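Subject: two folds for Thursday's group meeting

Dear M.,

Sorry for the delay on this. The cluster queue was jammed most of the week, so I only got both jobs back this morning. I'm pasting them in the order they finished. Each block is the input sequence followed by the predicted structure tokens. Could you check whether the formatting survives your parser before we put anything on slides? The first protein is the one we discussed after the seminar.
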Amino acid sequence: MCKILISIKPQFADLILNGQKKFEFRKNLPQREVERLVIYASAPISRIIGEVEVTDTLSYAPSTLWRKTYKNAGISKSFFDSYF
């Protein structure tokens, strides 16, 4: 079982933990298959706030990724575009 710690902005971490955001977008995928994410909420909270199960990892071009995830992305299209 691979578990990783990731730092996430508090507003997005809260959305993940309450189930409104089902995807966490990263430019670089982990080297190994991840089964659990330990969520560290960045400043101003600056602490671990929870852990979630990873059910799948998706790797697509940004346009395809958005099309497959937008309903549960928890972010706006403009935020997504500025990130990628």
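Second protein, same layout:
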Amino acid sequence: MLKRGQFSQLSSESSVHLDIRPMQARDRDSVVDRLSRKPLENLLLIDAASRVGEVPSIGDPAVQVLLAEYEDRLVGVAALQPIVTVEFGISEAVLAALLPHLGAVSSGLLKTRLVIADSVWPLLESSGRRKVLDRIEQGYAVSGRDLRPYEVPGGGHLRSASAEDLPDLVDAARSSLKEEDRRDPFDGNPYAFRGWVASRMPRARVIDFEGELCFVGYADVQLESGWLLQGVYTPGPRRRSGFAAAGVSDLCRCAFSSGASHVQLAVVQGNKPAEELYRKLGFRETEQFRTILFR
């Protein structure tokens, strides 16, 4: 594989040609092996590559991953669906070759390092895409060795989500979006939103206390390379009572008992209570990301 400096030098020469092609199921092992050299930085892309060729869930887009090759050697990986993201450490030349493809996505979620997002978004915007959400997020990660677990407060019941929890999970998701100043999904298609929440239920853990759901969290990526937690939410009146610390601790224990190398998540920049919570549990800061929901 050519080094970054070589690509930077060659990128200005017309003789250089990078082939860009869709990833196929037969490429899975080699692509995942490449990305797994940096599992912390590439977890979202590893998850996407691992699912290439699978039949998507109802309402979800088919996974689309692009491969960049130089003289039949793999030199870069990027995803178009379900998120737009790029391999960590990609060279300038490879990124330049991928940009037209990344900038052609009609709608979706861009989630990548700040410098990459600042290159991709202007292309999307110039093609008529409009932001629904644009924010900076701070990544956090923890290993099994560094985790400082918390127990469930007395009277709390920690368990996997069940079908009976669906109304509460929908309410929690709506409340979380509202706190982010995002549009209420019930203003669009409430049935589709319920279906989306229901599809995530097998990945959810909850805590109930006195008949009330006091914590919900989703392990949306569950790989040996790492777990990604999303949708962590505790209702306002129950915050700072230990429910979130216990719930996240439990998800981490599940990850490490399954053999995961680490657990990661992201916090919206400026959310000090969440930052304090994760540091208390042993999480450390990693990369900053820019997340843009567009259509």
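Two things I noticed about the second structure. The first helix runs from residue 4 to 10. Residues 1-15 have pLDDT under 50 and may be disordered.

Cheers,
T.
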